Amino acid sequence: MLSRNRAVSALSEKSNQPINAKVTRISSSSLEAGKKAYRWNRENYSRNRRRFDIWFFVLTLLFKLWLEGKKWSYIGGYTEEKKKARRQARAVWIRESLLELGPTFIKVGQLFSTRADIFPSEYVEELSKLQDRVPAFDYEQVAAIVKEDLGKSVEQLFASFDPTPLAAASLGQVHKAQLHSGETVVVKVQRPGLKKLFTIDLAILKWIARYFQNHPRWGKGRDWIGIYDECCRILWEEADYLNEGRNADTFRRNFQTYERVRVPRVYWRYTSLRVLTLEFVPGIKVSHHEALDAAGVDRSIIARLGAETYLQQLLYDGFFHADPHPGNLAVSPEGQLIFYDFGMMGRIQGNVKDNLMETLFGIAEKSGDRVLNSLVKLGALAPVEDTSAVRRSIQYMLDNFMDEPFEEQSVAEISDDLYEIAYNNPFRFPATFTFVMRAFSTLEGVGKTLDPEFNFMAVAQPYAMELMNSNGYDNNKTLFDEIGRQAASMSSTALGLPRRLEETIDKLEKGDLRLRVRSIESDRILRRMSGIQLGTNYSLLIAAFTISATILVVNELITLAVIMALAASASAFAWIRLLKRLDRWDRM
C-alpha cells in the first residue's frame, strides 16, 4: 500500500494535480512573464484609465452589434454564412477582451457561459473556454494581507510558507505552507485591490444593464437588471473567503458519512475575509486518465460516483457545487472523489423543489400546459399575455424529443433543446437552474471521458423515480386514474368559470380590460403614407444638395461642391433603399 501511495504521489506531481484551487500548478517563470500582460495588474493603474478601458470595450461591442444587422457592411454581399462567421469572430474577440479587462469581467464571462437562454450559441461556446489564469502578485503583498487580516506575520503563523504560489486565479492565489503543529495546508490569499476593482466595474456594469434593459430589441423578454443583481451577489460571495469556508464546512458535513468522498477541512484560526487556509489534500485530476490507470483506479466507478454525489447534493441536500469542472475534481490514492473550491455554490429552496417536481410530472405526462405553468411558478418563464407560441414549442418538444426511454437520453441534448426554445422567447431561467444544467452537462462530459459507456440519465433514473413516487406520482397509473384526473381537472375548471367571468366583467366596469384590434390593410396604408412622406423629404434634400453643389462649382469652390455632391448621393441612396423597402412591404 505504501509503494502504491508513493507511485500515485509521483504521478500526481507529474500530472499537475489540483491543489485546492481552480487552476493547476504554474511555474514561477510563467507567473513573472505574465505580469506585464494586463494593464489592470499594474500598481499605477488609475481609475480613469480603468473607466476608459471598460467604456472602449462596451462602445466597440455596441458598434459591432449594430454593424451585424447592416447588410451593406458585408463585403461581397450578405449571406447567413458570413453573418455566422462574423458572430463567431466577435465571440472570440469578446472572450479575449474580457480576459484583458481582468477579474470582474472574467467572472461575469464565466457566469454568462451558462446563459444559453440569453446569448447566442457562439458566445456561450467561447465564454465556456474562458480560463482565469492570470499573473500572480508579489509575495510581499501576500505577507502584508496575511498580517493585516490575521494579526500576525507569516513567520509567526506558519512553520514554513512557500513564497512561490502553486496557482494564481482572477480572485486570488494559493500557497503551500506548514503549520507549527506539522500539518501541511494550502493558503488562499485574495488579490490586492479586488474590492476597489469590483466597485468601479460593477457601477459601470449597472449602467450597461439599464441600457440593455431599455433597448427596444435587446431588452425584450430579458431581465438584464435581474441578471446584473445575480452577478453582483455571486461576485461578492466569491470574494468573501469566510463565506467560502462556511460553504466548505457545510459541504463536508453533508458527506461526512460517505467514505468515498473527501472534502478539505477548513482551519478557521488561519482564515479571514481575504485569507482561507485549507487542509492539503493531494489527488489525481479526473482528466488525467493515464495517471488514474497507473494508480489502479476504476474510471467507470469514479464516473458513476461523481454523478451519484451530485444527485445527492441536488435532490436531498439542496446545497450543491455549482462549478464541478475537472479542475475542481480529483481522486485520492484510496479511490476517493475529492472536491475543491467552494466559492460558487447553489441552494435549492423548498418551493423551488416543489415546482421542479411539478415540471417533472408535466414532462412525464407530456402535458405542455402543466410544464408551462410550473415554469412560470419557477420564474423560468415571464408571465405574458399570449403564451401560445411558447406552449406550442414545449408541446412539440414533449411530443418529439421525449419518446426515447429516460435512461437513453442525454443531458447535453436536453439542455440544448431547452435553450433553443428559450432563446428569443420570454424565458428567463433562474441562475440556479442554469448552474444545475451546466453542472449536469459537465459531469456527463467528464463521465464519458472516464468511461465511454457512462450514461448520466441511467444513473439519475432511480433517484428521479424515487423522488417522484415519494411525491405521489405513479408511473403505472391505470386508465381509470387518468379519467379521474381529467374529470377532476374539468370539474375544477367548471367551478372556477363563474369566478373568472365575474372578474372579467369587473375589469370591464373599471376600464382595466383593454382590447387590441389590428387591421392589416390600415397598417399597410399608414406605413406607405409614412414612407412617402419620408421619400418626399429625401427628394427635397437631394434637390437642395444638388443645387448647392451646382452653385459652388460655378463659384469655383470645388471642395465644398464635392461635399454637397456626396451629401446628395447619400440622400439618393437612402431614397432608393426606401423605395425598395416600400415595394417589399407591399408584396408582404
TrEMBL record:
InterPro entries for the chain: ABC1_dom, Kinase-like_dom_sf, Prot_kinase_dom, UbiB_kinase
Matching Pfam families: ABC1
Membrane-spanning parts: 534-554, 560-579
Keyword hit for Kinase: yes
GO cellular component terms given for this protein: membrane
Molecular function, one GO term: ATP binding
Domain of life: Bacteria
Keywords: Kinase, Membrane, Transferase, Transmembrane, Transmembrane helix
Cited PROSITE patterns: PROTEIN_KINASE_DOM
Entry keyword Membrane: yes
Example GO BP: membrane lipid biosynthetic process
Domain Protein kinase, residue spans: 160-526
PANTHER family for this protein: CHAPERONE-ACTIVITY OF BC1 COMPLEX CABC1 -RELATED, PROTEIN ACTIVITY OF BC1 COMPLEX KINASE 7, CHLOROPLASTIC
Family: Belongs to the protein kinase superfamily. ADCK protein kinase family.
Name of the protein in question: Unusual protein kinase
Organism: Dactylococcopsis salina (strain PCC 8305)
Organism ancestry: Bacteria, Bacillati, Cyanobacteriota, Cyanophyceae, Nodosilineales
